[in-house]
Amino acid sequence: MFEGFRGHTIRLGKGIEIHARVGGSGPPVLLLHGYPQTHVCWHKVAPALASRFTVVATDLRGYGDSSKPDDGENHVNYSKRAMALDQLEVMREMGFDRFRVVGHDRGGRVAHRLALDHPSAVERLAVLDIAPTVTMYANTSRAFAEAYYHWFFLIQPFDLPERLIGADPEYFLRWTFAAWSKVEGAIEEKAFAAYLKAFEGREAIHAACEDYRAAATIDLDHDAADERVGRLLAMPLLALWGARGTVGQHFDVLGTWREKSASQVAGNALDCGHFLPEEVPSDTLSELLRFL
Question: For residue 240, which of 268, 260, 259 has the smallest C-alpha distance?
Fold first, then answer.
């Protein structure tokens, strides 16, 4: 996977290291993965993107080979603000002050915060299979809670979810991929092996829980502060989602993003579940190339 890409470890302040794979040439594009994955989720689309762009695919703070710091007060070290700043600093270290961002799942939430906090750095923003966090929590129904049970399981106090997942992380991971993917065989064994290796350690399981705990606490505080001052996204936004997944079935995806944007918003559903870059890589790539 990622033939022709180079591995990098970018050392930031406060002891944080972010792992990245970089390939291609041209305008810079930052790819951010979701849960329970790593940068490997882009392995089917990144090489083709690299034919036209400089592609930077990172492991988010708390995931993969990136640092897993302590929680901090009110989960601050796993706030999307802290995770977004990591990514901004990574791109600046590589010499990119302005770039495009594509984020799937948790990576989409980091990308959203990055675009809000640092609008001059983000030229274009693409989010895959998410609606805004505050919108999803505020409009939670029984059906959504059943489908997205992990939102409410992973935020339980330490160390309940950590212990339960840690008892059999491979089973949890296989169950999750099977439940959220609607295209059989989309998660290849070589990719799954990479995800499992990155996921099964105690620190990694805890860090992922902290990501979700932050989303239900400090991230909502940051979102509320944005709403009070009317802060909106300033750059063009593309929203893609799985037609057979949960988000599009429970939310007006384009409508929710238009409420958060002062610029143009476009997008559509693709014939898949949650893992767009692996379930329908050709369609995902086509949409991204047109937008980027």
Answer: 268
pLDDT in tens, 157-215: 999 999 999 999 999 999 999 999 999 999 999 999 999 999 999 999 999 999 999 99
105 is catalytic: yes
Contact between 16 and 69 under an 8 Å Cβ cutoff? The reply is: yes
Q: Which two tokens stand for residue 272?
A: 């898949």
- In angstroms, the CA 68 to CA 199 distance is 12
What is the predicted pLDDT for the residue at 14? Answer: 87
**How many angstroms from the chain centroid is the CA of residue 148?**
16
List the domain boundaries for the chain: 6-291
pLDDT tens, 247-292?
A: 999 999 999 999 999 999 999 999 999 999 999 999 999 999 999 9
Output the DSSP codes for 176-240: HHHHH--STT-S-HHHHHHHHHHHSSHHHHHHHHHHHHHHTTHHHHHHHHHHHHT--B-S-EEEE
Query: What residues contact 225, with CB distance under 8 A and at least 6 apart?
Result: none
- Cα 235 from chain centroid (whole Å): 18
Q: Is 174 exposed, middle or buried (0-12, 13-18, 19+ CB in 10 A)?
A: middle
Residue in 105, 211, 219, 223 annotated catalytic: 105
Residue 250 catalytic? no
What is the CATH superfamily name and number for domain 6-291? Answer: Alpha/Beta hydrolase fold, catalytic domain (3.40.50.1820)
